[in-house]
Amino acid sequence: MAETHSLQDMRPQAAVAAKVFIQRDYTNGTVCQFQTKFPSELETRIDKQQFEETVRMLNNLYAEAEKLGSQSYIEGCLACLTAYTVFLCMETHYEKMLKKIAKYIQEQNDKIYAPRGLLLTDPIERGLRVIEVTIFEDRSLTR
Amino acid sequence: MKNCEYQQIDPQALSTPTPTPPPHQGDEPEKKTEPKRPKRKWEVFPGKNRFYCDGRIIVARQSGVLPLTVGLILVTSGLFFIFDCPFLVKHLTSCIPVIGGVLFVFVIITLLQTSFTDPGILPRATPDEAADIEKQIDNTGNTSYRPPPRTKEVLINQQVVKLKYCFTCKMFRPPRTSHCSLCDNCVERFDHHCPWVGNCVGKRNYRFFYTFIVSLSFLTAFIFGCVTTHLALRAQGGKGLVFALQESPGSAVELVICFFSVWSILGLSGFHTYLVASNLTTNEDIKGSWSGKSGEDVTNPYSHKNIFINCCSVLCAPMPPSLIDRRGFLPADESAQTGGTDIELPTLATKSEINVCTQGTKGLLESAALPPLLSTSCPQGKPQTAHPCPDISPAVNSDPSPELSTGCGAHHRASSHRDASPPRHTKTRSKKCKRAALHIPNPAFDAPVSPTSPDTGPGSKGRGHKGASFAPLH
């Protein structure tokens, strides 16, 4: 949340021209994956490869967060034995991954998207439904 | 578009805050957010939930019979420790109170976790998202006089799944998500709304719920066994059962409670074990979504085809985070917008549901005095398309009977809803009603615990046929 507002504060002169929503991709079930299809509204602003790379990286991070591996099984069994009270004291694997994802998005915003007048919103702030890409009309940028 | 019966969402209209103050809290309206006390998100949450401990604890607005559940468990366990344990420790072994204590702690902790955890509520779509979706629907929709169908088809593991549009939350529901009308929220991997725990059971609290019913069945069986042993030992030497009961009156109470609960709780545990092993939800099982009702080759696309992996993925998967961020602070500029949205959305939802079917069906449900039974399944069951009502109402009317066999006592959801005036009356009645309701429609629960599909399968398939008969109307 902090990065969203600090970037918007830094650019008070930029008005929001449009918002593009990257929807979820359910072809593999209910795991959190986003569609990598490049939206047409961003064609003038950013390179297709760059954008798809960002979304693909996010998909990988979410897949890792929800992965069913031996580590998650052991954690789950231990949690069950303690009547799940460990969830009150420990940070879960998913939460750790979410922090990693938030850092990745901020880094991408700072390095790639903000200079092009775009802003990625962390999907967790939209209930993991969409990746919201805000397009600013910044007249100082010429593309 | 002029002929369409739905209204397009105008984000500009939504973003203007209304002067109506928020329903809960006696706070000032959003447009005058005081800088000295930033609001937390739970304070403007649009669903029918209650929050305690500054947003840490979430429960459904109607607590159902949760106090009764807690009371029964406390009373039975208390009587067990007071009346039975001293005798059994003297005559048998001192392990008995230890085992009983461990089970009791497990039951109480998992019950409270099930009741107070966010079941996997999906936050409602922001106005911008909702407008974007409406635009997409219009682009792809048809131009006939009927509003375009509010469904989207996706291919999940080579299986076609229909995603329905939720008018309240203004989004296409992800797969396995359902809108609970009692809580007025879309819940991910919605299983059912359980009145005994006073909350929905969904993705995030299903493991707590499962552990609760399994440990409760162990506890009930354990107490039942111990009480029987206790009374048998006391009645030895020709003294008789009456003498034993007179010596230990608490045991009589426990015996009655345990005898009546053990069958239904064991049955429920067995049913849910079957669901976990096949990676199904109660909702899907009752509607027969994956049972090949219409002769198509449908299989559950979410199942891993391996019982062990299914169990692990349901019970041992990484704990998903809560998506509603109850304790986050509202940013000052958004709080006005959120307030406007919360109050505007329900109005728009009602207007957009001029779609006769949903309103007609709703009216039908209310008059049938069985709203909760159907309202949980109906929002996704009743097609949000403009099919004339007569097609749907017979299917809807056939639903009430199958619903009675829902494992978690859907019956007293109805009874507790039907009369608001004598709640105690319904609660005391509901225990007996539950036994009757669970025994009559589903003989599988009477039989010794058999989680295998032959017992529940045909039964649920039969129900599923009726329940899902309106699904192909899309």
From TrEMBL, chain A:
Presence of the UniProt keyword Transit peptide in the record: no
Keyword Lipoprotein recorded: yes
Membrane topology: Lipid-anchor
A Pfam match: Erf4
Classification via InterPro entries: Golgin_A_7/ERF4 (IPR019383), Ras_palmitoyltransferase (IPR051371)
Main location: Golgi
Annotated Golgin subfamily A member 7/ERF4 domain residues: 20-132
GO biological process, one term: protein targeting to membrane
Keywords for this protein: Golgi apparatus, Lipoprotein, Membrane, Palmitate
Localization per record: Golgi apparatus membrane
GO-annotated cellular components: Golgi membrane; Golgi stack; palmitoyltransferase complex
Biological role stated in the UniProt entry: May be involved in protein transport from Golgi to cell surface. The ZDHHC9-GOLGA7 complex is a palmitoyltransferase specific for HRAS and NRAS.
Recorded family membership: Belongs to the ERF4 family.
Protein name per the record: Golgin subfamily A member 7
Species whose genome carries this gene: Acanthochromis polyacanthus (spiny chromis)
